[in-house]
User: What shape does this take?
Amino acid sequence: MIRTSRSRRATVKARSIATRAAARIARRGTGTLASHAMAHGLSHRDAASMVGTLRKVAAKLGVVGTIGRTHAGRRMRDCTRYTPIQVGLICLAYRPRKPAFKVVAARLALAA
Assistant: This one.
């Protein structure tokens, strides 16, 4: 496989994931913390890593989202959905170390 084709496909895939997540949040008005992170350009793996800490910060602040169910492969899974304003509030108290997480946290705080 040509290396440039692989990198181009990866770029297109990342953009489509971000666009899809942003459209879902705009349509519904809420989204999971991972959806908000992916809408601002994080990969699924990085978003899952960042969201663990965001959940702890949300519990510490007392921010409560709406409970929902989501499809996870072939099974249903419980999730908590947050509005962009709630996510912005959580991200203001979040202190990341990784530079990519710092950029996304700043974008999420500004999006609110």
Summary: The helical segments are 3-28, 33-39, 44-61, 84-93, 99-111. The mean pLDDT is 92. The chain is about 65% helix and 10% strand. Residues 60 and 74 are 32 Å apart (CA to CA).
